[in-house]
Sequence to fold (425 residues):
Amino acid sequence: MSLPPLRRLPDGTVKQVGPLTGTRVWTIPGRANRPLATARPDARALESGEHTRLCAFCQDRYLETTPEKERLVGDSYERIGRVAASALQDSVAEFRRFGNLYEIVSAEYWRTNHDFQPAADVVAWVDDYLADPAGRAHIQALVATRSAANGASADLRATALDLIGGSHDVIVARRHVRDGATRDDELASSGELTPDEHAVYMTFTARAAREIADSQPYAAYVSVFQNWLRPAGASFEHLHKQIVAIDEYGPQTERELALLQEDPRLYQHAVADLSVREHLIVAATDGAVAFAGIGHRYPAFEVYSTCAAQHPADHSASELRAVSDLVHALHAVTGVLVPTNEEWHYQPRRAGVPMPWRVVIKARLSIAAGFEGGTKVYVNTIDPWTLRQRAVDDLQHLRDAGRISADVRIGDECTPADARLHYAD
Ligand SMILES: [Zn+2]
Fold:
């Protein structure tokens, strides 16, 4: 039995089936108009100087994170690689990258299950780091923090190797709160960055994902995601992305690879053409298109690169900018106070079939409960048509105010040609 991906019943209930996932989602009439954002009840005034030391990702607290693999500095985003502990405070990082102190897939996992050993240049950096007294003290403090958390005692050099040679990195933006913020809920989300800053953030992340794939030969895939706010899984309310190598594709990519065997133009036919027919294009740029997603458990936007390039790092600067401008605009529409997950999907290195890069942004508004667990039918509070219309209205205001890129075409300014994907040309 094949269900239509999207239909409205006579009473107004909207039933959806995810074209790539098979997930079944209902939107019940009357529950759809609840507000997206809610003000934080516990917001408080910031003390003088507090805006740069609110959490362990803040710029006055660089030593609370693991050795820094790279940072971008100044107006030209000059790259500084392998920052010595004694040099951490010599510059302000617009964006920085370091290993996650609490990895999902740990260095020990790769070492034990795959006999992975870090490359010689990584081992040399570890020894250099420990030879510097500031570096040694940094690692000692991190060992103490980790031991307190997991109870394990650890050899200093072995721990340093794991912290520096792991395959789960964090990319952190400079600001915790907006420049000039006076309250701690004036957070600097993705949508609060300028379009230029956001493009640098995306490009830095794409390159890091490629580098992690290159340095972890047992990785089948490298997952890239951003959790915003605690209900979406973030430990800190400080903007960051995570990049995690894993040794399998995971069931969603496997499902898509199976579907691609039947239809190499799967994403065009099952997603883009459907979105055009159902009038779900939210916005477009020269190189990317955004849809209100069908069959998601949470209200979701899907941004597809329309370029021939597949891995995010293989996109040219203008192609990457095209994707970034839409992702940025949709974060701006969603707002600072809404918890979101941003998930990147792209072709695994050894997949062998073309797949487009897409970025899914999900607003984590509802919590799955017993109804969902018992039926595997999920209730989403906003149907795709309503989500599109709200986004289109808000995007126009944001573009008029200069808050998003002027290159973003919105709603009916887009044409079916904007939804033509070139990944499989
Ligand atoms: Zn912070």
The pocket of zinc ion is lined by residues 54-55, 57-58, 176, 236, 238 (CB under 6 Å). The CA atoms of residues 264 and 353 lie 8 Å apart. The chain has two domains: 17-34+176-425, 77-90+101-170. The longest helix spans residues 195-215.
